[in-house]
Design goal:
The chain has 12 helices and 22 strands. It is of the alpha+beta class and 485 residues long. Strand 8 (311-315) and strand 9 (319-321) form a beta hairpin. The radius of gyration is 31 Å and the shape is globular.
Length: 485
Amino acid sequence: MANSRRIVPIVLVALGTVVLAGVLYGLQAGRLAQEPPEPAPQAARATVGDVMVVDAVGLFEFPGEWDDIEAETLTLWYPGQASWQWLVGNKHAGYAGTQEGTSCISCHSGQEQRLGQSLVGESELEGNPIPDKNPSIELDVKSAYDEDYIYFHLRWEASNPGTYHNLFRYDGTDWVRYGGPKPEVLEQNETPSYENRISFLLDDHQNVPAFPDAHFGFTEMGCFITCHNSLRAMPAHPSSEEVQAAQYWSERGVSDIRKYLLTTRSTFDDSGAGWDQVRPQSEIDQLKADGQFLDLWHWRAARSNPVGYAGDDWVLEYRNFDAGQNAWFRQQVGPEWMYDPDEFGAPAVRIEDMEKNVRDLHLIQGKTAVPAQSDLPFATDDIIPQVVLREPEESASDILANGRYYEGVWTVELRRKLDTGNDDDKQMVEGQLYDLAFAIHDDAVSNRRHHISWSYSLGLNVPADIQSYRLIDGEVQPLPLKPSP
């Protein structure tokens, strides 16, 4: 009996312990059921302020006063798919004059708005028209030079700032290409993201001919001598597979055809054939040594302006970059560079951030960009630019640029040495005439869908369509100091 009396309390205590544990477990389970689980790590969001002004980097200052120089206003117009082959073909009412060397501007000065309007309408036949395409753009041009440098002041109204280029978007699993030019991205229901650009071709007066042995060329026809039916987005452009199968281009890793001069082709015809008939390299080298190329100054709102430079290119058998390191390079597969979290608070931004900040969201080595880290959390629709910016070097760094966007207007100042000493530049001398032809890429468009100008003469202290004024101690000198040759 005594043993049984001792066993009963022990059993009761054990049962009580089990019941109490069950009650406590139930209470804990209920509490856990009511509390949300610990959230998975989320990507931090960058704090991006509204900035609708782009300020110049300011690597140089113009030594005079631009207000002392009167601007020449040029009207640039939209050419559609007009090319050199179109100009000399019977679809062009003035083709007979073109074949004889009659300059474009001698027939069409003052008709730019009408021409642009007619070719905007014609572009609808391509099946992918650009909505609300402006048929023409007014460009104000000023120029001056001093003992060392030549300067340009370019001003035009822009339908949007266009300060970002191609992008990567995180789709929740992978980084995919996003954005790009109109009209393609509109068809994909994506937000257009393609930079504003202004460029001009530059040559010595009466120098580069339209084709071998022609007595006329860039002076009369402007950029049309570089534009052919075989260029990308033109009527007879070869496929990337065809280009890569051509030995000359496959050796150079080229997949499309860009601006070129017919003087570099061994055969060509009015259809645009001859894109793959490049003369031997020794002949191309001799043409370059003889100065038979066009200099191309190329300012880009996204790929050059944030570091204070314009692109420095040249056109001969192709549109080539000047020697040295460019101010930008493209990330090819996925982000190898991302935003510096210490600078932005996050490694990526959202597309709406770029829409409300036209200035700050560029990847610049040594400033805002750091090597990408794959272990960081990203959210669906995060954005990183494809283009990474850097300091250019050698001949590619010749042209400094101050680009400013304010209240719908771009103002771009350019500065380059008169004599760079580089064989991929046109050297400039006081008392000489040069020829210029401008182009503007506006409203997120690429390649041929830009506006163009006629060819205009530029005089360094010589009467011309566009006068470059002599500066002495920052003062504009009276014109001209010597008569035209």
